[in-house]
Amino acid sequence: MVTLLYFASLRESLSCAREQLPLSSASSTVSNLIEQLRSRGDRWSEAFAPGRNFRVAVNQQMADPATPVKPGDEVAFFPPVTGG
Amino acid sequence: MPIVRVQEADFDVGRELEILTGGRTDVGALASFVGLVRDANDGRGVSSMTLEHYPGMTEKALEDICREAASRWDVLETLVIHRIGALKPGDRIVLVGVTSAHRGESFAACEFIMDFLKTRAPFWKKESTPEGERWVEARSSDDVAANRWKG
User: Fold this and answer.
1) pTM confidence score
2) Do B123 and A80 touch (CB under 8 A)?
C-alpha cells in the first residue's frame, strides 16, 4: 500500500485529500501510479491527462515520472506552487 | 542550521531579525525580505486569501532551500517564516532574513531563497475576489527568476 495525498485545486477537483492504494506491481514508478489513477476515468483521467500541469512528491521530495514508488511510501500530487 | 517556521500567527519583523543578530559581533550585514498580501491580482480585487501547505514537506523544502543558499554563499544565519491560513490585504505572508560578514552574500542569498521558495515550497494561495474564489496560477516569471541561479 502507498499513501496518496492531494492538495489545493487537485484535491478539490478530485474530491479527495488522502487515500491508501495497493501498488499494481512490486516495481512501480510515479509514472505507473499516474496510469493507475488515470484508469479510474472521469475526473481522474481529466486531472492527470497528459499535458496537465501538476507536480509529484515522493516521501516529501520532489519527484519525476521515473521516481520509484515502493510500499509504505507517501506520494503527493499538487498543482505548481504559489507561496511567498 | 536554518531557522524555519510555518505558522498561522503574524510575526514581528524587528524582533525576528534581532534574534538573527543578537549576541553576535561577526555579523556585518543583514538582508531581509517581507512579502505582503496585495489587494489586487491579475486584474481583480482581492478581499482575502487562504494559504494551504503540505505539512512536513514544506518545512523540509524550506530547510533545503536555506541549506542550498548557505552552500552557495558565505552566510552566517538564514531564517524563513511563512504564514498559512486566512490572510487579508496588507497582511505579512513571508519573512526571509540572512546574515553574513559582508553585504553581497546576504543580498544574493536572500533573493535566491525567495526565488526558490516561490517555485519549490509547497504552498498554494486561494483568493477571494468579487467574482468568487480562485486558486492563484503559478507565474512563468517565477520559473524564470529561479532558473537564472542555475549554472
Assistant:
1) 0.94
2) no
